[in-house]
Design brief:
Elements: H1 2-16, H2 23-28, H3 41-51, H4 82-101, H5 117-133, H6 139-156, H7 159-171, H8 174-177, E1 191-193, H9 196-207, H10 214-222, H11 228-239, H12 244-255, H13 280-295, H14 302-307, E2 310-313, H15 315-321, E3 326-329, H16 341-346, H17 355-365, H18 384-387, H19 393-397, H20 404-417, E4 432-433, E5 436-437, E6 441-444, E7 452-455, H21 457-465, H22 468-483, H23 492-504, H24 509-518, H25 520-523, E8 524-526
Helix pairs in contact: 1-7, 4-7, 5-6, 5-7, 6-7, 9-10, 11-24, 12-13, 17-20, 22-23, 22-24, 23-24
């Protein structure tokens, strides 16, 4: 009874905790470079795990927001709909249930409150709210949350019930769920510097995909984040912290569309009788290991991501490659991220590989030239079974070029996608398509490589690795990820600086991230 009542009660309390007579406009921060956005499901999961250190939390599945381009945390696609609100409330109950069953470092007293339940409850509520809100609490918030805890303690006579309800209130608070940037406008110019705690949150969720640590919170309080050089110094420290793995891998997971592979992912059982959805973690893990090996290695560049020839094959990857398990080079015909089974499988149909999906992804995510929507009446749902009975895969897809309504886009799309024709729908290399030798030649028609021919995925990867257009596009992808929005014309200057720095450093990814977070756009919001 008490816990069921807590859902509406804690939500009401959390809304009250935004002090001020008219909080709505302050939340919206009109003109802000990154509009109001809530934590993504992965950010939420990481944050609650940080709050309850040592607790084995249940799996939390918050509703996904629609993706904008590659990313699932874009402000333009978010809305606090009833399904999301109910999921957040239910998650708070499950999380606090688990936490109370597993008292650990987060609870400095016995789970019955010990000799002084009131003092212990006050200490826990104040500390957890401070870390959850990513800033010191105001006197009004302290009085509100401690008063709520005391009311529940008096009403229930149970330390456990009172503390659990107070923790649920914190987890339902907008200050936890949203990246609030509401510092008043000092009226000193077109851009408003973010408060230290607001910038600390931007930094931590961009680089670590989770909450700030104590050092970052201290830097926010002491003013160490008030200058670009101060932010840069803190960013380099954060890049050395193990949590950087979470942020780097999350970006690449989204950018490469590896979330399209899940436990329900299927392949045609006649064509791929050995396919098992249990392969998915192996596919994802191999690419994640490649990404981290490059980022943490001696040459952490975009070129290395595209060309790295190493793997550490588990049983599944070894079977797909036809090699022994363990570390070693990938087989001939493969290189970096675009020739690994994870991306190749995510960008394929049930039976046959899809040059359209593969080529369109490169246009959008590596060349920043997304193809236009297909014209009205285009055949969008030709079945794999029908396609599989007519010539080679390339011959079937080449029919696009014969239709003037399709040729304009598909010359660019298929010209890239045909480079991967050696790889089937689970990323296995094939020399033949039916009885015919595979033709993996293609032409790049976009950017600084326009008109350049290639033969196969390795040659294509080498060309992309040396392309200025590709480097500029990847810098833009990181900009979108960090700001939770797509760039506008107003961002042209900062984007030019970011892209130039990326090119100057030879495509070094850590340098790109530091240049990004020290930029004026990242450290400020636009004045109304």
């Amino acid at each position: 009874m008490m816990l069921s009542l807590s859902l509406s009660l804690s939500l009401s309390l959390s809304l009250m905790s935004c002090s001020g007579p008219d909080p709505g406009p302050r939340w919206l921060a009109p003109g802000a470079p990154s509009p109001l956005r809530h934590l993504s499901p992965s950010q939420y999961s990481n944050a609650v795990q940080d709050l309850f250190e040592g607790v084995q939390l249940p799996s939390i599945q918050l509703p996904d927001d629609p993706k904008v381009g590659a990313f699932d945390h874009m402000a333009s696609a978010q809305s606090p709909n009833p399904l999301w609100i109910e999921a957040v409330q239910a998650a708070a109950v499950r999380i606090t249930d688990a936490a109370m069953e597993q008292p650990g470092p987060w609870l400095p007293c016995p789970d019955d409150g010990g000799p002084d339940p009131r003092a212990c409850g006050h200490a826990v509520v104040r500390d957890l709210a401070r870390r959850a809100f990513r800033r010191p609490l105001t006197p009004e918030e302290i009085a509100l949350y401690l008063g709520f805890f005391e009311d529940q303690l008096a009403g229930s006579g149970s330390f456990r019930v009172a503390l659990q309800l107070a923790l649920q209130a914190i987890l339902n608070a907008p200050e936890f769920l949203y990246l609030l940037e509401i510092t008043p406008d000092p009226g000193s110019g077109p851009r408003i510097p973010l408060a230290g705690h607001e910038l600390a949150a931007r930094l931590s969720f961009t680089l670590w995909n989770t909450l700030p640590d104590e050092r970052l919170l201290t830097a926010a309080i002491t003013g160490a984040l008030d200058t670009a050089d101060g932010v840069e110094a803190e960013a380099w420290r954060m890049l050395e912290d193990p949590r950087i793995t979470q942020g780097v891998l999350r970006f690449h997971h989204l950018w490469l569309d590896l979330g399209d592979l899940d436990e329900s992912f299927s392949r045609n059982p006649v064509r791929y009788p050995s396919w098992d959805p249990s392969w998915v973690p192996s596919l994802q893990d191999e690419t994640a290991a490649l990404v981290w090996r490059v980022f943490d290695g001696p040459k952490p560049t975009l070129s290395s991501l595209l060309l790295d020839p190493q793997t550490d094959a588990d049983r599944v990857i070894a079977e797909l490659y036809g090699v022994a398990e363990g570390p070693g080079p990938v087989p001939s015909g493969r290189a970096g991220i675009l020739t690994r089974p994870a991306w190749l499988t995510a960008k394929a149909n049930l039976i046959n590989p899809s040059p359209v999906q593969r080529g369109a992804w490169i246009l959008e995510r590596m060349l920043c030239a997304p193809p236009a929507p297909p014209p009205a009446g285009a055949a969008l749902n030709i079945s794999d079974l029908q396609l599989a009975t007519q010539g080679t895969n390339r011959e079937r897809y080449s029919q696009h070029a014969a239709d003037p309504a399709c040729a304009g886009c598909h010359d660019a799309i298929d010209g890239l996608g045909f480079g991967f024709e050696h790889f089937d729908s689970v990323g296995i290399w094939n020399e033949l398509d039916g009885d015919s030798p595979v033709d993996a030649s293609g032409v790049i028609w976009v950017g600084d490589l326009a008109g350049t021919p290639f033969d196969g995925a390795v040659e294509l990867s080498e060309l992309l690795a040396g392309s200025e257009t590709v480097h500029r596009c990847v810098a833009r992808q990181w900009f979108r990820y960090a700001h939770g929005r797509v760039e506008t014309e107003a961002d042209a200057v900062i984007l030019a600086q970011l892209e130039a720095r990326f090119l100057e450093t030879g495509g070094e990814l850590p340098e790109l991230l530091v240049e990004l977070v020290r930029s004026e756009t990242f450290r400020t919001r636009r004045a109304p």
